[in-house]
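From the shared-data thread, chain only:
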Amino acid sequence: MPSSFPVHGAHPHDDAVTFRVWAPAADAVALELKDGPSLALSATEGGLFVRTTDAAAPGTRYRFRLDDDGPFPDPASRHQPEGVHGPSEVVDPTAYDWGDADWTGVAREDLVVYELHVGAFTEAGTFDAVREQLTYLRDLGITAIELMPVHGFPGARNWGYDPAAWFAPARTYGRPGALGRSRQPGRRGRRGGAALLRRQRAALAARVPHRRPPPRRHSCPARRE
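Structure, as tokens:
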């Protein structure tokens, strides 16, 4: 298991998945795999419980049971496909090819930032729908997008400030890979680069192409079609 793994969450590697959860008040923690076995985690120092198993893989849904309580979703989940109270899903964070190794960013003096709420920016309210409007934002003179919080929340609409599922993009906006795609313009739009500023943990680096020097001040409406 790579030493660079985060302390918490589900981490796929070498045809297995390592699960880690911090539960200092629990005497025992069990991993419950959907349509699979219930597996005991081993206690380590500092209240951390750990289990590596080949019974799980990317796409597996799971929860934790603490002593006789639960089951609960993973507080470090990367995806909550059935809502913030449902089972978590194992996601491989290395599966997406960012393809931006040669991108050098945008000079500070050229930044024109658009603060964007994914759920309100388009009728669809999804990451993919935002991606379809990158050319529209570019033509307005926008060179950077600052996403309002995108982590999971109960229900279908939210400002995003609920303290739940901090590491999982909201399921109503799309799967985690869709958030990655939203910062990758289509081939026809690759004429330069910009940045997406991270507003909170679940937001990822992104870029929006532009063709001309942007204005220093710009007020622009949400796109509705």
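The first helix runs from residue 118 to 121.
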